[in-house]
């Protein structure tokens, strides 16, 4: 269980998820500049000024066994178009969260999120044998909430005053999950959605 989250590449038709490295910093900033995503108030996306700390935190969490961060590559162009990770992992309970997900603006609503989540969920449930996979988002992040619901995740509740945002405001987080029992039906729906793009 100590090495539950071992590094892996997850390969789909459109995207490839590869382990995050320090030398991805410039490419991540380039990806985030498509839409200047660091200006969004309801999510955390690295900018030129924050990318090194962003990567350092992700890799530290990975070293502790809590996280497995990825960058997302467009397989056709071989360019980084975003990032995601397994996080808040509790191997003793076979449970983790998929979070810190963002995509370049031009890749949003293109089917990339569906494929990434299919790859991550399939590995979580079918290789790591998770009993549940969790998603958390800012209560005001309507795009994220809608995307999570489209995956087939069910809302578990709201954590009030869950975090203090970078600007000092208090964040309420909405919690969703997919359980092991729900996975076969969710997988079928995701495959159908993926094929429709």
Task: Tell me what you see in this structure.
The chain is of the alpha+beta class and 197 residues long. The chain contains five helices and eight strands. The chain has an eight-stranded mixed β-sheet, with helices on both faces. Strand 7 (154-164) and strand 8 (170-179) form a beta hairpin. Helix 3 (112-126) runs antiparallel to helix 5.
Name some characteristics of this structure:
about 200 residues, 8-stranded mixed sheet, 8 strands, about 30% strand
Task: Please outline the helices and strands.
Layout: E1 10-11, E2 15-19, H1 25-33, H2 51-63, E3 68-74, E4 79-90, E5 95-103, H3 112-126, E6 132-138, H4 142-151, E7 154-164, E8 170-179, H5 183-196
Parallel strand pairs: 5-6
Antiparallel strand pairs: 1-2, 2-3, 3-4, 4-5, 6-8, 7-8
Helix pairs in contact: 3-5
Based on CA atoms alone, the radius of gyration comes out at 16 Å
Secondary-structure element series: EEHHEEEHEHEEH
Distance separating the two termini: 37 Å
How many β-strand stretches? 8
Q: Which whole number gives the mean pLDDT? A: 90
How much β-strand is present in the residues?
25-35%
Unreliable spans: none
Helix and strand content put the structural class at alpha+beta
């Amino acid at each position: 269980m100590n090495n539950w989250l071992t590094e892996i590449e997850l390969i789909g038709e459109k995207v490839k998820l590869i382990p995050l490295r320090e030398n991805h910093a410039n490419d991540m900033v380039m990806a985030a500049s498509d839409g200047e995503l660091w200006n969004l108030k309801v999510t955390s996306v690295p900018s030129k000024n924050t990318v090194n700390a962003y990567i350092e935190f992700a890799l530290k969490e990975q070293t502790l066994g809590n996280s497995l961060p990825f960058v997302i590559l467009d397989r056709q162009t071989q360019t980084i178009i975003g990032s995601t990770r397994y996080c808040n992992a509790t191997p003793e309970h076979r449970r983790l969260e998929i979070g810190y997900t963002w995509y370049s603006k031009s890749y949003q609503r293109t089917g990339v999120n569906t494929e990434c989540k299919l790859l991550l969920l399939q590995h979580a449930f079918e290789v790591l044998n998770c009993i549940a996979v969790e998603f958390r988002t800012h209560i005001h992040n309507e795009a994220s909430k809608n995307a999570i619901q489209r995956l087939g995740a069910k809302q578990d509740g709201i954590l009030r005053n869950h975090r203090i945002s970078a600007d000092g405001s208090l964040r309420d987080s909405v919690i969703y999950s997919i359980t092991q029992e729900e996975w076969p039906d969710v997988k079928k729906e995701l495959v159908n959605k993926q094929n429709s793009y």
